[in-house]
Amino acid sequence: MNVVFENLSRSYGSVRALDGIDITIGPGITGLLGPNGAGKTTMLRILATLLPPTSGTARLDGWSTSHDRERVEIRRRLGYLPQDLGLYPRFTVFEFVDYLAMLKELHDPRQRHRRVREALEAVDLQDVAGRKIRTLSGGIRRRVGIAQAIVADPQLLLLDEPTGGLDPEQRVRFRQLVGRLGEHRTVLLSTHLVEDVSAICTSVVVLWHGRVLFQGAPAELRKRAEGLVWSAQEASSDAVASWRTDNGKLRVIGARPGPSATPVEPTLEDGYLLVTSGSPIR
Amino acid sequence: MSVSESTVARRSWTPIFGPVWTELRHLTYILLVLGVGVSAIVAIKQANVAYPTIGYDTGVAYHEGEILSAFLFLLGAWLAMRDRRSATTDLIASSPTRPGAVRATRLGALAVAGAAAFGLLWLIGLVSALAHGGSGVIDWVLVPDGMLGSALAAWLGFALGLIAPASVAVLGAALYSGGTYFINTQYTHYNTHIGFQWLLPFPPLPQWSADLGYVPNIFGPHLVFVLGWLLLVGGLIVAAPFRRSLRTIASRTALIGAVTGLALATVFGVQLQAEANRYTVNGPNPASWVPDYGQYSSGLSTPDPLIYPNDHRATTCATSSALRVCVYPVYGRSLATSLVSILDPEARAIESVIGRPTYVRMVPVAEENCGAGLGQAVLKEQYSFSYHYNLRGYLISCALPQLGQRRYAGFGGLPHDFPAQSAVALWLVIRSGELTPRAVRQGVASGTSGSCLADLPCTPQYSDIFGFGSLGWTRAEIRVGLAMAALPPARVTSELRELWPRLVAGKLLLASLPGYRQ
Ligand SMILES: Nc1ncnc2c1ncn2[C@@H]1O[C@H](COP(=O)(O)OP(=O)(O)OP(=O)(O)O)[C@@H](O)[C@H]1O
Ligand SMILES: [Mg+2]
Questions:
Q1: Is the pLDDT of residue B132 over 50?
Q2: For labeling, which of A76, A134, B279, B432 is most exposed (least CB within 10 Å)?
Q3: Quick one: B410 and B354 in the same domain?
Q4: Mean pLDDT, chain A, whole residue set
Q5: CA of A163 to the centre of ligand 2 (A)
Q6: Residue nearest to atom 16 of ligand 1 (CA)
Q7: ipTM above 0.95, yes or no
């Protein structure tokens, strides 16, 4: 399914959280990158039909989030993990996911229970299915959130910082899960972890102050930094970013800091930092 | 996209029951337990009466539905706030189930929980009645009525919880419960002749009679009235999130429900209001009887009070040489026997009086009354029998009708209009053994100040005899009464026989009484 944003803007008072977004996102896994306050959550909430845009439209295939009946059609195909995830503390894990599955119109109890069990297994929670949510750790709650997002087999999966709080093993597991889901669905995940994006995303959108600075394949974003990443003894003052690495040298992004600097293979993070630094592109 | 549609049936006829059941299991049960517990304890304490009946005990349980309501109100508010407090609003709102439908399932769970809680409270009342040895018929109408009232409290709480924070909800529960309690008690005690109190979800129970049931029987219109409120509140709660899309069938249905509810509540509210205290009369000649209701509040007494017609249903009797007392069978012979033993001394004291009551029967709704010279007196059927004190002087007041009217005249009556009757009454009280001359003299001697000086005796028991509080005897009346008591009874009786017509007509002077010149 295709997600289409047309001239989408959203303001909170005088703050323009989204400013004329015009992109189309197709099937596959799209990573949403951007600094704090860039508008990632705002974008996902608009698509999740929770927030009306100030102007412009957001659509999933033919259905617009601004139309009441079409909104329901979008919701029927939606799995959403909010950034500020809340759960019912007095429910057990199974009951909570089961309750949301009911609201997601899985009415037949037997099939629904099977679905819930599958979703819990997918995030490795089958052993805590009977535990009350208030007794769970933050990372496990996050996984309950992922389980409820995938339980009704959504066509559009919106994940707002899904890997925050997950341990490395679960992050890997999560990547496998999302990778599998993304084969036939549209997955949009916002994150600050560029590694997540390079590991699983088929495309990247970089948001900055409510605008799209980049849209394309991760490799393309990395390419932006080609010839602009250096290993050097010292940084020049006009470098986009520089930090000392474990080999004792500085990794410098920007113009060649000096004749002794040697070019380094850029990473996705270099590309992201370069794009959001504003200078070379804008 | 057909993966999901093909493996899972997305639509079936059971979309409501699953969520309702889940909600039911997760209600804040501590509130329900506390609600039923506290109201049951209060009810059981009040139900502890000497002659228990099922009607009374279940009625008390119903009455405590008000306390239960406070907890149900909170229960509803808590459920309404749950999404907000647990930050799950987004998860729920992004599901395809309409907000109105989600609310409807929650209202359903609240209604079931409220009804069950009330049912339990009512059952506790029933068990308590049976455990006390109560008998009689069950007034089933209290069950649906209480269940609807309980659901309404929970739904109102839910409505408030949707828009207000927890502190306001707690205040709301207190105001709801306290407000209904206030109106309930205010209107029961002082203004029963208007129908406003019937508009409460748990109205003060009208007079209950083992024979007639509730009089007036408000429960027909009251059921529909509360149902109307439920439809109104529920319809608005369900329809509110559809504001922007009133074209959907669900929101239209909810709105139609709300409008229907408003209409029902209005029509039946007006009817309840008009119901006031319309008594039903069972008996041979209902048309001849007018309830003497409302005299206390108006301060007027009925000059010729009518006696509730004999319905021949007070068939459990006990007798003494001077008196026969009959009560409704539900209360058992022990009540009749105990009433005879209370009334017999007075009955014997007034044996020589023409037209004195020899037959006392229980009536469902009227006040105590004996009319003039009818030879019978009525006893009002009461839930909680504490006849012992407030029947003192009753038969004597029957013998001396104008004096008896003071009982009804209350504070507005004139205490000393009939001093001769007062003095004779004192003599009769002493003859019946209720008071000894010594006790009266001690009362006069010790009473040095305040209203008790002029109106002795004024100890609590005796103040009931001929009036309220300070209405008693004057010093002159006491002097003559004591003097009569000192004379041989036979002499006083024979002298009084000639004076009696003028005495009961209120035309005899204190100076004409046998003991005056001593
Ligand atoms: N409810 C709100 N009221 C006012 N301003 C808001 C509100 N929500 C977001 N904003 C503002 O909108 C902008 C975008 O916020 P948003 O939450 O979409 O950013 P984000 O990219 O998700 O950031 P983060 O990475 O920190 O989650 C920010 O400037 C934020 O302060
Ligand atoms: Mg965010």
A1: yes
A2: A134
A3: no
A4: 91
A5: 13
A6: A39
A7: no
Answer for the pair B329, B318: CB distance below 8 angstroms, yes or no: no
Q: Is residue B215 part of a domain?
A: no
Candidate from A41, A84, A189, A197 with most ligand 1 atoms within 8 A of CB, to mutate: A41
Cα A41 to middle of ligand 1, angstroms:
7
Contact flag B96-A76 (C-beta cutoff 8 Å) = yes
Residues A110, A76 share a domain: yes
Chain A: nearest CA to B154, how far in angstroms?
20
Domain of B471 in residue numbering reads as 402-512
User: Average pLDDT in the A269-274 region?
Assistant: 89
pLDDT tens for residues B241-295?
765 655 677 778 888 999 999 999 999 998 888 765 555 555 555 555 555 443 3
Minimal Cα–Cα distance from B121 to chain A, Å? 26
Within-domain flag for A271: yes
For residues B421 and B424, what is the distance between their CA atoms, to the nearest angstrom?
Answer: 5
Ligand 1 atom at shortest distance from the alpha carbon of A34:
21
Query: A209 with A226, same domain?
Result: no
Contacts of B98 in chain A (CB under 8 A): 72
Q: Is B244 on the interface with A (CB under 8 A)?
A: yes
Beta strands in B182-266 (DSSP E): 207-209, 213-215
Q: Which residue has the tokens 């029927």?
A: A76
**The pLDDT value given to residue A76:** 95
Give mean pLDDT, residues A30-42: 94
Closest residue by CA, ligand 1 atom 2: A12
Instruction: Please name which of B404, B221, B412 lies closest in space to residue B299, comparing C-alpha atoms.
Output: B412
Q: What is the CATH number of the domain that holds A115?
A: 3.40.50.300
Least CA distance to B242: which residue of chain A?
A68
For residue A42, the ligand closest to its alpha carbon is: 1
Q: Using alpha carbons, list the distances in angstroms from residue B99 to A78, B106, B169.
A: 16, 11, 21
- Tens digits of residue pLDDT in B311-320: 788 899 999 9
Cβ of A105 within 8 Å of Cβ of B97? The answer is: yes
Q: Is the pLDDT of residue B133 over 90?
A: no
Give the mean model confidence (pLDDT) for residues A46-66: 94
Contact B73/B176 with Cβ under 8 angstroms? yes
Residue A34 within a domain:
yes
Task: Indicate if the pLDDT at residue B233 is higher than 90.
Answer: yes
Three-state DSSP string of B372-401: CCCCEEEEECCCCCCHHHHCCCHHHHHHCH
Contact B1/A at CB under 8 A: yes
| pLDDT tier, B166 (very low <50, low <70, confident <90, very high otherwise) | very high
Rounded Cα–Cα distance for residues A262 and B332 (Å): 110
Domain that holds residue A179: 3-217
Q: Does the beta carbon of A37 sit less than 6 angstroms from any atom of ligand 1? A: yes
Contact A103, B95 (CB under 8 A): yes
Cα–Cα dist B350/B330, whole Å: 30
| B249 touching A (Cβ < 8 Å) | no
For residue B513, CA distances in Å to A243, B11, B427, B433, B438 come to: 123, 95, 11, 21, 21
Give residue B182's pLDDT: 84
* Site from B22, B27, B29, B95 to mutate, A interface, most A CB atoms within 10 angstroms: B95
pLDDT of residue B465: 41
User: B156, B177, B203 — which closes off a domain?
Assistant: B203
CA of A158 to the centre of ligand 2 (A): 12
Beta bridge pairs of residue B318: B325
pLDDT at B447: 53
| Residue predicted with more confidence, B111 or B469 | B111
Q: Which of B140, B173, B203 is the last residue of a domain?
A: B203
The pLDDT assigned to A58 comes to: 95
**B177 plus B28 within the same structural domain:** yes
